[in-house]
Amino acid sequence: MKKALESQKESAQQLMDMIEPKGTLLDIRA
Hints:
elongated, 0% strand
């Protein structure tokens, strides 16, 4: 189950990376 959650998180992160520029992504996280 933990692996599935991590995989889902990675997929979401990849989508965010494609949609948002790195700078904006860092601003959201901060």
